[in-house]
Every structure is written in C-alpha cells, then in structure tokens.
TrEMBL record:
Protein's UniProt name: Transcriptional regulator
Top-rank taxon, per record: Bacteria
An annotated Gene Ontology molecular function: DNA binding
Coiled-coil boundaries: none
One Pfam family matching this protein: HTH_3
All copies of domain HTH cro/C1-type, residue ranges: 15-69
C-alpha cells in the first residue's frame, strides 16, 4: 500500500512501520546499511538534517522507494490519520 509522507516525522513513521513489518530492529537496519543504530533512530524520529544518501540507504534496506508525484489536497494531519 502506498503511504503519503510530507514531513520528516511522517517519513520516519513510515520507515518505522516498514522496519517492524519486516521484523527488524534498528540495529538490524544499521547492519544492512552500515549506519549506526542512533542514526536509524534519528531518521525514524524525524530529525532534521538527515542526508539524502542516508535516507536512500535506509529505504533500500527496507525495500522501499521514493515516488515523486503532484501533491494531493489533504492536510498533513489528515494524512497521519490514514495510518
């Protein structure tokens, strides 16, 4: 199922949901990406300043990808309610 994310927090929440769905912990994702567990935690919490390459590595490790498309009219709070 497609997930819409417009904020760093929403991106982090989507990553966390997928990680848990795959039965991985943050250290496991770190092992797959060569990133520290603290980095995975920061991304999942929506910390600002995450490098795009780091985010792409995490998405790849979780078998996720970016999809760029025109923005829908839903407000960020309404998008969070979907999940």
């Amino acid at each position: 199922m497609d997930q819409i994310a417009r904020t760093p927090k929403q991106i982090g929440d989507a990553i966390r949901r997928q990680r848990r769905k795959l039965g991985l912990n943050q250290t496991g994702v770190g092992d797959k990406t060569k990133l520290r567990q603290a980095t995975i935690s920061a991304v999942e919490s929506g910390a600002l300043g995450t490098q795009l390459g780091t985010l792409c590595d995490i998405l790849a490790a979780l078998d996720l990808e970016f999809v760029i498309r025109p923005r829908t009219k839903a407000k960020p709070a309404e998008i969070e309610d979907i999940f």
